Amino acid sequence: MTSSTAKPDVILYEHDFKGQTLPLSKATPNFVPLNFNDKASSVEVVSGVWTVYQHVNYEGRRLTLGVGKYDYEFISKRIGNDVISSARPAEIILYQHAQFQGKILNLYDDTQSLVPLGFNDIVSSIEVTFGEWSVYEHVNYQGVRLDLNVGKYDIDYITKNMGNDVISSVKLRVPDIILYEHAEYKGQTLPLTEATPNFVPLGFNDKASSIEVTSGKWTVYQDVDYKGNSLTLGEGKYDFSFISGKIGNDVISSARPAEITLFEHAKFDGKRMKLSKDTPSLVPLGFNDIVSSIEVTFGEWKVYEHVNYQGKSLLLKVGRYDIDYIKKNLGNDVISSVKLA
Questions:
Q1: pLDDT at 284
Q2: Distances (CA, A) of 279 to 176, 187, 321
Q3: 144 burial class (0-12, 13-18, 19+ CB within 10 angstroms)?
Q4: 22-49 exposure pattern, b = at least 16 Cβ within 10 A, e = fewer
């Protein structure tokens, strides 16, 4: 038995919402057989979140679009006019049972509650076909969160990291940093939500002239694999003059966020919570006073005994910290807030 939300829909127009059209409701890797290759001048996203690509098979420059209408001026500035050759929607598939069996729910956009869809607290396996998603323990994107990229996740992975039959809401991850091809936040864009060691396959190597950090603290690098000159940026907008003066124009090849992962049990086991920005309270995330081990993958962090960064604190640099270290220096199951140092 299959359940699904409304199918995603996008309409590509030959001219500014005029002329020949190409309506789509599923991933389409090649517009050539549809006689619409390199023809689109405007786009209307009716539902879901879509990414359009410069080349067939989802390659080349790309542009991600939510529900709305995008005219010639917008499209031509960000990806180019008459250059789109493929398109696909963000999609996550929830399965009732392990091994991707049982009832199925296809989702294409944020879903704050699975209750009305008859899928609350019954998910045992998940497939992400495209996009970057977070699943949550409670409705309204509350409780323990698990971030998922493209791939298949069976019951063992979900149970270890979050628990079985506990998912109540699902959300597309918004970009935490956006790199722009030109000054003044114009031209092609590269939105990122996670560490990205190489911009070359994304068609964005040595192209960034301005940057917007929407969440957390990010470091951008001159070379791939996080090498060469670097620049660390907090939340804010950084135009051409700032970027070129600090690291250079059109030189950025990789980027990664500050990141810390909290684990429920010792030896980095049990439920986990990945954070990339200041968190004044772990209570809404369902992670208050249960942390027994910690891994810092990048950046320097402070963990605190109480909410709002109060009480005893412990400074942690890149590394892994098991229960013995945390218990000796702060105490076990006492962490209530986390902040970038």
A1: 85
A2: 15, 33, 19
A3: buried
A4: bebeebbeebeeeebbebbbbbbbbbbb
Could you tell me the strand order of the sheet in which 151-153 lies? 2-4, 101-107, 91-97, 125-130, 151-153
Handedness of CA 320, 267, 279, 258 (dihedral sign): positive
The answer to whether the CB of 237 falls within 8 A of the CB of 179 is no
Alpha-carbon gap, residue 191 to 206, rounded angstroms: 15
Domains of the chain with bracketed CATH: 2-89 (2.60.20.10), 91-172 (2.60.20.10), 177-257 (2.60.20.10), 259-340 (2.60.20.10)
Q: How far is CA 211 from the centre of its chain?
A: 17
- pLDDT value, residue 2: 38
The residue behind tokens 């970009």 is 175
Distance CA 291, CA 279 (A): 14
Residue given tokens 């879903």 in the structure block: 111
Across the range 59-67, mean pLDDT stands at 85
Tokens standing for residue 175: 């970009």
Residue 62, amino acid: R
The pLDDT value given to residue 4: 44
Report CA 25 to chain centroid distance, whole Å: 23
Residues 6+ apart with CB under 8 A from 329: 314
Q: Percent of the chain, pLDDT > 90?
A: 76
CA-based nearest residue to 7, from 52, 46, 55, 54: 46
* Token pair in block for residue 27: 């991933």
- Among 62-66, 126-130, 279-283, 293-297, the minimum mean pLDDT is found in 62-66
Query: Tokens 């019954």 map to which residue?
Result: 122
